[in-house]
Model the fold of this input.
Amino acid sequence: MASIPSTIDNFIDGTYVSPVSGRRMPDLDPATSQPLGELALSGPEDVDAAVSAAHAALNGPWGRTSVEERAAVLDAIADGIEARFDELILLESYDTGKPVWTSRNIDIARAVSNFRFYAGAVRHYSTDTHSMAGALNYTLRRRLGVVALITPWNLPLYLLTWKVAPALAMGNTVVCKPSEVTPLTAHALGRIAREAGLPDGVLNIVHGLGADVGAPLCAHPKVKAISFTGGTATGHKVAAAGAAGLKKVSLELGGKNPTMVFADCDLDRTVDGVLRASFANQGQVCLCGERLLVEDSIADAFVSRLSKQAAAMEIGDPRSPETRFGSQTSLAHRDKIESYVQLARDAGGRVVTGGERPSLGAPWDDGAFYAPTIIDGLPSDSRPALEEIFGPVVTVHRFSTDDEAVAMANEVEYGLSSSVWTSNLRRAHHVAAQIEAGTVWVNTWLKRDLRVPFGGMKASGVGREGGRYSLEFFSEPKNVCIDLT
Ligand code: NAD
Done:
């Protein structure tokens, strides 16, 4: 068993501190519903203390660091995560219900890559010069100051470090608000950063509920920018708070991503790829393809093969190295998933596989497990087919022409990602160009180069993260014009 802290306190100015109110709530293992520890329920006073520490740290040693020094600290944090790799894998698995296989290969591996990548990216980052008649312009990029980083529960350390690393690389100080559902690895990050030599006050972490911590953090006058990943409804509130304070805001929001399977695809590869796109992390990746569009002529055969593989997935003990499918991250979230499956049944949908809680025996029957589910026969404009479920539920819809497929892909209000499965290169380019989504994968899914722009169109967000896009979000350009006459 990982050494799980019995109290999960805030990390402010380099020290773990209790919330001012003294209030706490249990942090649960969703696979068993057993309590793991007691989480700080912070409020505006704690937010203010964290922002004040972050603000003061701007004028401390951190404010005088060079790019090379900051890159070295990021590499040292990556070393610290690697040194605690096995412990962090378990913490993430206990907190989220995901298999250790997933937290090893995806979550914690990516947290290391995030720091290593941004250490390199900032070392190699350069800005523009603009030469004109009689003058030379050059662009400086300056830190913003104190930035707020707010993250969800599905990929806790992965998504938090995806923001922390570029924010620190550009010289900012940060106040993090991790999801109240999954605080454990963020809690561990404080100590790792301190041991890596990050000065006190540069990284602060405040735990608690969104309304009590996230909202006052977004509204705090000393916070200059907000990078938010979470649901679209919360994104609207964050955008409003940002607008009121004239803050820079980056919003990475929900999705309802179409997976488009054409009859000319490589069937074996496509079934494997679509299985991953549908059920990775128990369907709790914002990029998962919940809306499966299949060309008519192969639809029955494709759905039958996909269902067989979904039904064969190894579900159970998240701590077993064999397990590939764990529990949902909370009982409340499973309730939401079940309500959508009921909605689909009521609308005449046919459950091809899943549609129930698996029977796993004690202690897992008290957990938030839900079987991989495929539903056929629903109209593409029914609620389960249009709204984000964020779980292991895929609805199947048939098309017969490319234009019809594109129209169905674009029928949703979201525009985060999509995958296209075809062996026809011309079709791949043509369809990719027309899909309203920030990312289109062709014959693959979740292949990530950390340099590319990442983000969503329409209700899936505003702005892009990744590579230089994050370095530019977390800094401000200043043009210097030198007269040469
Ligand atoms: P959520 O919006 O409920 O919460 C996200 C974070 O915001 C949490 O830390 C929460 O405490 C905080 N929060 C809540 N109310 C707030 C407020 N008024 N002001 C500021 N912060 C507040 O989302 P969730 O349920 O934790 O996560 C699931 C959602 O995240 C899904 O919609 C999923 O698609 C999305 N997501 C998007 C991406 C992406 O990159 N686009 C990645 C992962 C998850």
